[in-house]
Design goal:
The protein is an alpha+beta fold. It has three domains: about 140 residues, Creatine Amidinohydrolase, Chain A, domain 1; about 140 residues, Creatine Amidinohydrolase, Chain A, domain 1; about 300 residues, Creatine Amidinohydrolase (Alpha-Beta Complex), CATH 3.90.230.10. Helices cover about 35% and strands about 20% of the residues. It has 19 helices and 28 strands. The strands form eight sheets. The chain has a six-stranded mixed sheet, with helices on both faces. It is globular. The termini are far apart. Belongs to the peptidase M24B family. GO terms for molecular function: aminopeptidase activity. This is Aminopeptidase P family protein. Pfam families: Creatinase_N, Creatinase_N_2, Peptidase_M24, Peptidase_M24_C.
C-alpha cells in the first residue's frame, strides 16, 4: 500500500468514527487563497496532487479528485487511479458527482473555514433532492490524521512604503469607511490576504511567492481597523506604520471576536469569505450583508505610482529573461541541461538584479511533452533533459517591491518542425489580436477572449485555459476580479468589465499531449484610447504591452501573418531592443538580442 493509499484509508476510518459518510477536501485555506502555506496543503498531503487548483471528495467506497483542463495530464501522473476517479470541472461539479455517488441519507462533511457560504448553499440545494446532507465539522478530519502537519509560517510583517504603494493606508481606509456609509453598514470583514496587505500597505512572507501575512481585518465605519495577526509577527516599525487607528489583536481570537457585533450590520464577501465567518457573525446577533470585498476594484485599478513601479520591474525582469533566453539558445542545444538546471539559471539571472524578493510562482520549466501540461511543476522525480528536437517552454515571474511580473516564452532546441511553427504562429496571431484590441469602456474580458482563439479555431484547435488573468502590485500574480476567459468561466470573473488601470496577462497557447506545449505571455495595461472620427460620447479602451523580451522568430511562419500582424511584431521587437538592449552589459547578448529583434517583415 502506498503512503497516499494509507492516508486515504486513515481518513475513511476517521470519517466513520465521526459518523460521516464522506468529506470534501478543497485546495485552499481559511482565506480562500489560491496559493496556500504548507500548513494548508491538505489536498497534496492526501492525494499527492501538486497543482494549484483542485478538490477531493472521499466516500466510504469511492473517492474522486476534481481538476480543470490545466491539470488533465498532471493529475493522472501524480494521483493513483487505483484510489481516485479523475473528474473534470466545470463539466461535472462536486455537488453533481455527490448526487450520483452518495447514498440517499448520506452525511457529507465539510470544513466551514474552507468553503464559501455560496458553495455551501448551492451544493446543499443540489444534494437536497437526494436527501444528502452537508454537515459542517468543528474540526477538520484531515488535520486529525496529519500528524506531522507543518505549523503556520512565523514570518514577520513588513511595510510597503507609501512612496511605492502610491496612497497611504489612512487614505485607503477612509475610502472603505465612505463605502460602508453608502451601504449603511457598520463594518466589513476582510479575509482575503492580498486585500488586507493592500489596505494596510503591509506585506508578509507566509505564502510562497505571494507576499502576504496570515491575518484578518475588520474595518469600521469610522475607518478604524482591527487587525488580527499573530503578535510575534509585528515589530515596532510595523506598529509605527499602522498607527493608533489600527488596533492589533491576536489572530487566534478572530472567531470569538465575531460574536461581538450583535445588532450591527457587517459586510461579508459571499464569494471570497468562508462560511464560518458569516455563521459566527449571525450566531452572535449581527446582520450580515453579502457584499463584494470593497478592496477588489481599487486594488485591481492600479494608480500612477503602481503603474510606474510595474514598468520599472518589467524592464529589469525583461533584461534578466533576455539573458536567460540567450543562455538557452546557446547552451541547451549542446546537451547536458535539464528542466531544473534551466530553472536555476533563470533564477540566477533574476537574482543578479539585486532587487528580486521572490519568484511570483514556481517556474514552469517544461521541455517536450511536459510543456503540454499548462501548469507543469518540475520536481527531481520529473526532471527531464532538454534535448534536440524539443520545444522548451518557460513560464515564470518575479516579485519585486515595485511590481509583480509574469511572462512565458518558448524556444526550439534545434530545428522546429513545420507543425510546431504553424501552431506557434497561430498562437502568436491570437496574442497579437488581444494586444491590439480596441473596445468600449465596460467591455468584459469574456467578450474578447475569442479574439485569441480564432486563429486556432480556424485550424480545428483550441486551448483549455483562460487567455488572461489580473496581476497584483507586489502581490498575487493571479488577481481578480478581471479576467480574459470564456464567458462561462466558472470563476465568473470573465464577466467583470475591464477598466483603465487594470493589469492583465495575454497568454494564448496550444498543447499537443505527449509532445510539446506553446504559450506566449506578456502583461498588458488597460489604457484609454482615442479613435479618430469615433463617437466622442463613447469612451474607448485598448491595451498597452508592458512586458519586453524577444518572441522566438525561428518558430514564426511569416506567411501566416497579415501585414498588420507583421507590423505589430516588428514594432514590438524594436521596442524590446530599445528598452532591453541598454540594460545588457554583455556585448554578445546585446548582439544576439539585436538579431532576434531585427524586422521580420
Amino acid at each position: 500500500m502506498t503512503v497516499h493509499s494509507a492516508r486515504l484509508e486513515a481518513l475513511r476510518a476517521t470519517l466513520a468514527d465521526r459518523q460521516l459518510d464522506g468529506f470534501v477536501v478543497p485546495l485552499t485555506d481559511e482565506h480562500m487563497s489560491e496559493y496556500v502555506g504548507d500548513y494548508a496543503q491538505r489536498l497534496a498531503w492526501l492525494t499527492g496532487f501538486q497543482g494549484s487548483a483542485g478538490t477531493a471528495v472521499v466516500l466510504a467506497d469511492r473517492a474522486a479528485i476534481f481538476t480543470d483542463g490545466r491539470y488533465t495530464l498532471q493529475v493522472r501522473e501524480q494521483v493513483s487511479a487505483d484510489d481516485w476517479d479523475y473528474v473534470d470541472v466545470p463539466a461535472t461539479s462536486i455537488a453533481d458527482w455527490l448526487a450520483v455517488n452518495a447514498a440517499s441519507g448520506a452525511r457529507i462533511g465539510y470544513d466551514p473555514w474552507l468553503h464559501t457560504r455560496s458553495w455551501v448553499d448551492q451544493a446543499g440545494a443540489v444534494l437536497a433532492d437526494r436527501a444528502v446532507a452537508l454537515v459542517a465539522v468543528a474540526a477538520n478530519p484531515v488535520d486529525a490524521i496529519w500528524t506531522d502537519r507543518p505549523a503556520p509560517s512565523p514570518a514577520r510583517l513588513t511595510v510597503q512604503p507609501d512612496a511605492v504603494a502610491g496612497a497611504s493606508s489612512a487614505t485607503k481606509r477612509a475610502q472603505i469607511a465612505d463605502w460602508l456609509t453608502e451601504k449603511n453598514a457598520d463594518a466589513v470583514v476582510l479575509s482575503a490576504l492580498d486585500s488586507i496587505a493592500w489596505v494596510l500597505n503591509t506585506r508578509g512572507g507566509d505564502v510562497d511567492h505571494t507576499p502576504v501575512a496570515l491575518s484578518y481585518a475588520i474595518v469600521h465605519a469610522d475607518g478604524e481597523t482591527d487587525l488580527f495577526v499573530a503578535p510575534e509577527k509585528v515589530d515596532d516599525t510595523v506598529r509605527q506604520h499602522l498607527g493608533n487607528s489600527v488596533r492589533l489583536r491576536d489572530r487566534a481570537g478572530f472567531a470569538d471576536a465575531l460574536a461581538g457585533f450583535a445588532g450591527r450590520r457587517v459586510a461579508v464577501d459571499p464569494a471570497g469569505s468562508v462560511a464560518a465567518i458569516a455563521d459566527a457573525l449571525e450566531a452572535g446577533g449581527a446582520t450580515t450583508l453579502p457584499l463584494r470585498d470593497p478592496v477588489l476594484l481599487p486594488k485591481a485599478i492600479k494608480n500612477a505610482v503602481e503603474i510606474a513601479g510595474h514598468r520599472a520591474a518589467s524592464r529589469r525582469d525583461g533584461a534578466a529573461l533576455t539573458r536567460f533566453l540567450h543562455w538557452v539558445a546557446t547552451e541547451c542545444p549542446k546537451g547536458g541541461q535539464t528542466e531544473l538546471s534551466a530553472a536555476a539559471k533563470l533564477l540566477e539571472f533574476r537574482q543578479e538584479t539585486g532587487l528580486l524578493l521572490d519568484t511570483s510562482f514556481d517556474t514552469i520549466s517544461a521541455t517536450g511533452g511536459h510543456g503540454a501540461s499548462p501548469h507543469y511543476r518540475v520536481t527531481p522525480e520529473s526532471n527531464a533533459p532538454i534535448e534536440l528536437g524539443q520545444l522548451y517552454l518557460v513560464d515564470s515571474g518575479g516579485q519585486y517591491a515595485d511590481g509583480t511580473t509574469d511572462v512565458t516564452r518558448v524556444l526550439p532546441i534545434g530545428e522546429p518542425t513545420a507543425e510546431m511553427r504553424d501552431r506557434f504562429t497561430r498562437v502568436l496571431k491570437g496574442h497579437i489580436a488581444i494586444a491590439t484590441a480596441i473596445f468600449p469602456d465596460g467591455t468584459m474580458g469574456g467578450q474578447i477572449d475569442a479574439f485569441a482563439r480564432r486563429p486556432l479555431w480556424e485550424a480545428g484547435l483550441d486551448f483549455g485555459h483562460g487567455t488572461g488573468h489580473g496581476v497584483g502590485a507586489y502581490l498575487s500574480v493571479h488577481e481578480g476580479p478581471q479576467r480574459i476567459a470564456p464567458p462561462d468561466h466558472p470563476s465568473g470573473q470573465a464577466l467583470e468589465p475591464l477598466r483603465a488601470g487594470m493589469l492583465l496577462s495575454n497568454e494564448p497557447g496550444y498543447y499537443k499531449a505527449g509532445e510539446y506545449g506553446i504559450r506566449i505571455e506578456n502583461l498588458l495595461l488597460v489604457v484609454p484610447h482615442a479613435v479618430a472620427g469615433g463617437d466622442p460620447e463613447r469612451a474607448m479602451l485598448a491595451f498597452e504591452t508592458l512586458t519586453f523580451a524577444p518572441i522566438e522568430r525561428n518558430l514564426i511562419d511569416p506567411a501566416l501573418l497579415t501585414a498588420d500582424e507583421l507590423l505589430w511584431l516588428d514594432a514590438y521587437h524594436a521596442k524590446v531592443a530599445e528598452i532591453i538592449g541598454p540594460l545588457l552589459a554583455d556585448g554578445e547578448v546585446r548582439e544576439w538580442l539585436a538579431t532576434k529583434c531585427a524586422p521580420l517583415g
